[in-house]
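Sequence in, structure out. Go.
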Amino acid sequence: MVRLADVYEGRDDALSHSGTPGRFFVWLPVGHALRKVRRYLRQANRVFQNTASGAIAIDAPAGCPEALVVDLIDLLTDDESADTRCVFKTGRADLNVEDIRRVRTIRQLRQRQTSQWLLEMLRSERFTSVFQPIVRADETSNVLGHEAFVRGIGRDGRTVLPDSLFDTARGCGMLPELDSAARRSAIREASITLDDRRHLFVNVTAEALNDGIETLASTIVAIDEAEILRERVVFEVIDTGRAADVRKLRAVVESVRGVGFRVALDDVGCDERSLRVIHEVRPDFVKLDMGHVRFAVAQRDDAQRVLELAQHLKIETIAESVETSDELEWNRECGATYVQGYFIARPAAITG
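Output:
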């Protein structure tokens, strides 16, 4: 199995090179910002050079210059810092393609510096997964499968919940790494604990799929090595609303299905765009969050339209976040195929 430590080797920002001499490359968005930074560097007696790529290369004899990053963010306006790119490289060699891939905004780098707990958690792969059953709406004892939810494990053994993990990862540019680590955790735990007759729903962000099916390459290897049948695995696309290009999303979904997996669209809303996404992408499952329609009767009419469209297209539907008997009954009446939520069971580790 591909380990995160192997993926990071030689590719991470200077956070992994504390104390190692190198150069800090900074690209400023406008001439005014460039002049400000040069003036500051001269006053601070920092050694720097202009480069052919348009960056300022600042000598950093003690590794990634955390204090310098803080000073530059304070020096620049919000708009300037949002457009300022940077990367640290050990040694004196010029930048190469791999270095360019590691370029981040200066704010992302600062967030990484203050989020080293997540980076360390990723490197040591301190994650586990809990599972929530998905059952037939008309017969809740009939289990289709389980959705995996990642949990981080802090150094003190405490559980770190997904909101904290993903908010931090998205803010500091580590979402792809966390996304991949969460999938590997799900596969590892499922191979040990889940009934091999059940489906495994594994989350993948819509943002990650912008890079195509290659995003799932290491995950697919892990699934095959764990000897989990591909037909049992459902890749659940979360944050569907973040998908920038619906045609690209459909192409990726078709590629995933073409190699033996099934696909669910999660976080589907009740607006016209969501209906268009369902119609164009044609996943195997559509998941409708009852939390979005719980307190508005008018929205239930819109939710029913989503269910009816899915039924018309012969797409199976899963109503999630079902928390009451009334919500279960409403979904039965509207023809939802499956349900999921606290009324059925909370996410939990599976033993035995």
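Check: The chain has two domains: 8-114, 120-339. Confidence is low (pLDDT under 50) at residues 1-16.
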